[in-house]
Amino acid sequence: MEAEEKLKVTEQEEISWVAWSLSTDTEVPWNCAITKRKVDESGYTVPITSSSNGIPSFFADMQTVHGGDTANLRYKDLSATAATVFIEEETSNDGEVDHTTEVVGYLSLFKYEPTDPLGYIGLGSLLVN
User: Fold this and answer.
1) Maximum distance among all alpha carbons in the chain?
2) Distance CA 66, CA 115 (A)
3) Does the domain spanning 18-114 belong to CATH 2.60.40?
4) Residue ranges of domains in the chain
5) pTM of the prediction?
6) Can you tell me the distance from the alpha carbon of 18 to that of 63, in angstroms, rounded to the nearest whole number?
7) Of 21, 26, 59, 109, which one has the greatest count of Cβ atoms within 10 A?
8) Would you give the end-to-end CA distance of the chain in angstroms?
């Protein structure tokens, strides 16, 4: 019998989620988009389009996993209008850090005091056994 088959889960687990509308509309206080498969270790500038002022909170992650090396997404040069995202490979197995291109999803959030706070956002949770 495999180890996974021996495990008996007796407690429920709660899974929470947030769903966000894709938007590059300058009238909303966020920017949510995905890149084409163009992000690698050299950096790729993603535009941030909003009429809001200031530096946003910025969240991003790889949406694909190409190549065989472990890698993470990083960013630098965050401004009110753009951020540079790049793939950083870990180097414990070898010193080579070239990475193939990936698709990246990103979300920038500006300070906002909405009249309808949940108008564009889906929130929820569910219990699973």
Assistant:
1) 59
2) 42
3) yes
4) 18-114
5) 0.69
6) 16
7) 109
8) 21
